[in-house]
Design goal:
The complex is a heterodimer of chains A (469) and B (206). By secondary structure, chain A is of the alpha/beta class. In chain A, 32% of the residues lie in helices and 16% in strands. Chain B is globular. Classes of the chains: A alpha/beta (469), B alpha/beta (206).
Chain lengths: 469, 206
């Protein structure tokens, strides 16, 4: 290839196996991640008498249907027969195929987007697919990572490739400046989504660049990339650097010492060249970002905590009905201030914000205080849980009246039964505020872990900057 | 996968933007075997009240639209989760064609793997179709995939674009894995060179 290229273009060209006469691209898949959801894919392989071509390039974690309490009893802790079958059939399907599986009893189990990076499974320059829309998380390592449906998972497992009808376009989101105190990667992500809109990234791969992105640790980069899908993008990525290489250095699946020098030399090549052109660029002043909270039922409906819900009467006619519907669902009056809004419960966890730094940030707010509404903390993985306990964070949460649970998707998506009752308002560190997402009739406000902890101790949506950090 | 050619059917007007997959099929149904029939779970929390009774005001529950095979919707249809169960629900309900102003990329791909044709038309054209259908509930729309045209109840034709490989696959109902495996030698050769460049891709035992 001649000329300056973007990171995405380099990965794309390094993985293109074939382009058909009518413009279909066959792309090699380095890594595939699965949870309980795509059991249909194994059924399909069985029906056709096909096998998994490269089983060690896939990993599996039960995360959607595992309980967050009673885990010492393993699968026996699952009361619902259908949920239990989901967890058990992932174990049996992966065992039959030879796919590494980190099951309900494994100390490395967790949400796949939290636990797979902890293994060093994803490294720079890779193509990654996953049976989950938040697979873009792994773009934090300088990889091209996309969520796919079960049929495509089946295709990947059978062939280790995936067809793309068109090469995605490139969008660079520049975030320059120093984050203010109390502002986190989650606030950056919500600001990006509010700027682009929920479909503004459709057809694009986003590269996050700029000094505020460079300053993020790997966990913050994962949080930022994780929510790319909430702007409609198939993928989000951050160019790899010393932060990336240092993270990977002691991980079990990362290249062994003997391959280290070769790997880092290859990885350094996966960076956007100076002068490379993006199809679109957006610039956001990161120093101006405030702690964010969503008010509505789409992730783009996010505002600084000091903001007010919109007034449909002042909106353009085309948007009025939709705004009225969102306000009614959320139980908000037009123009109502977000700060001070009473919440019924708090959830801290998920593939967006269930990592160690997230728990540290929440614990810093909770320390020495008392939650006044039911509040649960669900570490993103058992590795995170063990690390948090090693530094005493669980004691901080328990002393503050939070529940300290075991790893899984839990109340982000309510598929294991951890749900928000109808009509209740939840301050949540998750990624989607869709109507019914956390349970039928649930009302979700998305925010950072520190903001959620602040809501727990006041019982209201609270500007974390006012409670002391 | 059942091939699609021309679909002439009752159109269901469901003109909303950002219809997400949690809405299309609430996740509590996704642990059920596919044989249970996902069509009855489509938009379950809108079609049924908390007690499980049909809500009359929902267009899907009105007699004129019961046998609808074409769904009319707005921008960014199928956004959110990658769950393919959302498409299984659409397909099993009996819908063969969705006509929307845009889709999430993942949902659009999932449609193409499951014999559901995702047509994109400008929102103005969809608004015209919805107006005609609402004026005469049960009115039919004709979608001609070979000709890439939608014919409204009034006979007006709208052209749509679709990637050629997707069109061919939908019309033939092809098993794509078998097609890809015909390129096996090429995949093997690529993989050998790729493993030489990045040997850690092979992955070790944990």
């Amino acid at each position: 290839m001649s000329g300056a290229s973007t990171l995405f273009e380099k990965i794309w060209h390094a993985h293109r196996v074939h382009t058909s006469a009518d413009g279909d691209h066959l792309i090699y898949v380095d890594r595939n991640l699965i949870h309980e959801g795509p059991f249909y894919a194994f059924d399909g392989l069985r029906r056709a008498g096909r096998s998994v071509r490269r089983p060690r390039q896939t990993v599996a974690f039960p995360d959607h249907y595992v309980p967050t309490v009673g885990r010492e009893r393993g699968v026996e802790a699952i009361v619902d027969a259908d949920m239990r079958r989901m967890v058990e059939q992932l174990a049996s399907n992966t065992a039959a195929a030879g796919i590494p599986h980190f099951g309900i009893d494994d100390r490395r189990q967790g949400i796949m987007h939290v636990a797979a990076p902890e293994l060093g499974f994803i490294t720079p320059g890779m193509t990654v697919t996953g049976s989950d829309s938040h697979t873009a998380t792994h773009g934090a390592f300088g990889a091209f990572a996309s969520g796919i449906g079960a049929s495509q998972v089946e295709h990947v497992m059978a062939t280790q490739t995936l067809w793309w009808q068109a090469q995605p376009r490139t969008l660079c989101v520049w975030l320059d400046g120093t984050l203010a105190p109390g502002v986190t990667a989650k606030d950056m992500a919500l600001t990006v989504i509010a700027t682009l809109g929920v479909s503004g990234g459709a057809g694009y791969v986003i590269e996050y660049a700029g000094s505020a992105v460079r300053a993020l640790d790997m966990e913050g980069r994962m949080t930022l990339c994780n929510m790319s899908i909430e702007a409609g993008a198939r993928s989000g990525m951050v160019g790899p650097d010393e932060t990336t290489f240092a993270y990977l250095r002691d991980k079990p699946y990362a290249p062994p010492a003997a391959q280290r020098a070769q790997a880092e030399a290859v990885w350094r090549g996966f960076a956007t060249d100076p002068g490379a052109r993006f199809d679109r660029e957006v610039r956001i002043d990161a120093s101006a970002i405030a702690p964010m909270v969503t008010w509505g039922t789409r992730p783009e409906e996010a505002l600084p905590i000091t903001g007010r819900a919109p007034d449909p009467a002042r909106a353009e006619a085309a948007a009025r009905e939709r705004l009225q519907g969102a306000l009614a669902y959320m139980g908000l009056a037009p123009g109502q201030a977000l700060e001070g809004l009473p919440v019924d419960r708090v959830f801290i966890g998920s593939c967006t914000n269930g990592r160690l730094q997230d728990l540290r940030a929440a614990a810093a707010v909770a320390r020495g205080r008392r939650a006044v509404v039911p509040s649960i903390v669900v570490p993103g993985s058992r590795t995170v849980k063990a690390a948090a306990e090693a530094e005493g964070l669980h004691e901080v949460f328990l002393a503050a009246g939070f529940e300290w649970r075991d790893a899984g998707c839990s109340m982000c998506v309510a598929s294991n039964g951890d749900s928000v009752p109808a009509g209740e308002r939840c301050a949540s560190t998750t990624n989607r505020n869709f109507a019914g997402r956390q349970g039928r009739g649930s009302r979700t406000h998305l925010m950072s872990p520190a903001m959620a902890a602040a809501a727990a101790i006041t019982g209201r949506l609270t500007d974390v900057r006012t409670v002391g950090l | 996968m059942e091939p699609i050619g021309v679909v002439d059917g009752v159109a269901i007007p469901y003109l909303h933007d950002d219809v997400d997959t949690d809405r299309l099929i609430p996740i509590r149904f996704l642990r059920r075997p596919l044989a249970d029939g996902y069509g009855r779970f489509l938009l379950a929390d809108e079609r049924f009240d908390a007690a499980g009774a049909e809500r009359r005001e929902i267009v899907f529950n009105q007699p004129a639209y019961r046998d609808g095979t074409i769904l009319l919707s707005g921008h960014n249809f199928g956004c959110g989760s990658a769950r393919e169960g959302a498409v299984y629900a659409v397909r099993d309900y009996g819908i063969r064609v969705v006509i929307a102003a845009g889709y999430s990329d993942i949902f659009r791909m999932n449609c193409c793997w499951n014999g559901v044709l995702p047509v994109v038309l400008p929102i103005e054209a969809i608004a015209q179709l919805v107006a005609q259908v609402e004026a005469a509930p049960g009115a039919r729309i004709r979608v001609d995939l070979p000709a890439q045209q939608v014919h409204g109840p009034d006979g007006k034709a709208y052209s749509f674009d679709i990637a050629l490989p997707v069109k061919q696959r939908l019309m033939a109902g092809l098993d794509q894995i078998a097609g890809t495996q015909q390129l096996q030698a090429q995949i093997d050769a690529f993989e050998r060179a790729h493993y030489a460049r990045m040997p850690w891709v092979m992955n070790r035992e944990a």
